[in-house]
Amino acid sequence: MQSPRTVAPNISWARLRPHIVGWAFISPWLVSFSFLMVYPFIASFVLSFTRYQLIGEAQFIGFENIQRMLFEDERVADSLRVTFTYVLLTVPAGTAISVLVAILLNQAVRGIPFFRTSFYMPSVIGGVGLALLWTTILAKNGPVNAALGLVGIEGPNWLFETAWALPSLALKALATAGAAMLIILAALQGVPQHLYEAVELDGGGEWAKFWHVTLPQISPAIFYNVIVTTIGVMQSFVEAFIMTNGGPGTATLFYGLYLYRQAFEFYRMGYASALAWMMFLIILALTIINFRVARYWVYYEGEE
Amino acid sequence: MSVLTASWTKSKTTQRRLRDLLAYTLLAVGFVWFIFPLFWVIMGSLKTFEDFNQIPLRIFPSELYLGNYPSAWNSVPFGRYFINTAIIVSLSVVGELISASIVGFGFSRLKFWGRNFLFMVLLSTMMLPFWVVIIPRFLLYRDIGWVGTWLPLIVPSYFANPVYVFLMRQFFMTLPSELDDAAKIDGCNELGIFWRILLPLTKPVLATIAIFSFINVWTDFVKQVIYLSQDSTYTVAIGLAFLRWQIAQGDPVPGLLMAATVFTSLPMIAIFFIGQKYMVRGIALTGRTGT
What we know:
The structure holds 2 protein chains of 2 kinds.
Chain A: H1 3-47, E1 50-51, E2 59-60, H2 64-72, H3 74-105, H4 112-125, H5 127-137, H6 143-150, H7 162-174, H8 178-189, H9 193-201, H10 206-234, H11 238-244, H12 255-264, H13 269-297
Antiparallel strand pairs in A: 1-2
Helix pairs in contact in A: 1-13, 3-7, 3-8, 3-10, 4-8, 5-11, 8-10, 9-10, 10-13, 12-13
Chain B: H1 2-45, H2 49-52, H3 68-75, H4 78-109, H5 115-125, H6 130-143, H7 151-154, H8 162-173, H9 178-185, H10 190-198, H11 203-218, H12 221-227, H13 236-248, H14 254-286
Helix pairs in contact in B: 1-14, 3-14, 4-8, 4-11, 9-10, 11-14, 13-14
């Protein structure tokens, strides 16, 4: 008569145990997921409908922030224009460069490890250091203008002229796209050799190999890079903050920089939250569009 | 016949040579494109003020002038900033390693309710923009009195960064499950399997995570500038930004800025050379460099 009482909990403990242990192992992430992801994600949505300047209580103001952001604050439109332009200047060109450089680094010539190291190295410096480095490269009397001077062109003061400031930042981004290049290189090295041999048997040349084998095979890696760099570039901040301070005028006023100023210089936490949520929605939309378009150009193994 | 073969081989080698020539030319262009900025800044750090105003612009310094380094080092309290940054970085790296390996083990070697779903959730949070969560995080840290301290920069490292969890999980998945079974038969529980059997095998991926998180924390200017507010707590990146704004306000010594850029980049470059192998593998695996 006693056995059911003692056995039953044991069985359920034996059943429960792996689940409890599993959840215990992932609990550190569950903590950060709850407190540093889910909570802030919801809280910033709620804050979007308030006025809150760090002191006192957050005041509910309905759609005032959203109305201001969408229809009244011209800076928002400016910064969105700047950010989209920056995405268009850096993502397609950066993708093309990363593919070309990766193909170059995949050639069977001597000294490749040396070149790979030197191509990737500038991107590890990162952040403020890299921004300062490019500030000196693009200075009025810097090496870029000296090189232009050799062919008789008087270069502009890159970072301080409205027309050139944003392209200058884009140039910097293109010269430091090391990680993307390495991802493509890894994909290239994973292309099965027998596919190339098949093209050779069919009498195809180098171009056919590239077009019918290499490109489809590395397209998932390219797609991945496009997604990740688009999301990253949309959030750009440090380049503008350090190199141009958003100027001249609003020429390099990235959306991230504008958001930072609203939040941490003017302490408009409610308004900045509304801006942040709009950024989230825009990035989400861009990612969805990217996935839709991917159907037409990304090749996945085992798909017809 | 033999003549034909000979000429065919010859043209093949010529073609091959042309190809190599083209490859090296392009590699040289790439080399200049990627490395010249770094070279320029190193040369610039060794130039005197006069060197910068010469026409035509000189690439090499007129003399080996080392004075920029001490002036840059002393123009901002870099000594203290280096120590501060080293403390923040080393405590963060330890946290990332511990938490990512524990959580990565859970997601790869254990079976439990909701595992696959939660892992999908974890992957999707990697796409969540930083800016959408930063304001409530800031308010949260302020409410518990952490703003102005290093805690917001360090403590989250102990709660598993999704990118490193992913890296860890991918690695654990490659280890044979027989290892776990054998250990279980020997009476090992999950913690024992994790700590004694599998963790010693993950050294390469731990190295990758250590390098990524070192570089990411060291260069994470945004968080540092948001959370820190007193000179005694500032970091190297903030020091560099100070230097930049001093220059913008008319300090006329470009060599000083360049010297500061060089010595603040040295830890990154050193880590890169030590751990290049692990970094390359990690990037290939996760497709990113962290955070």
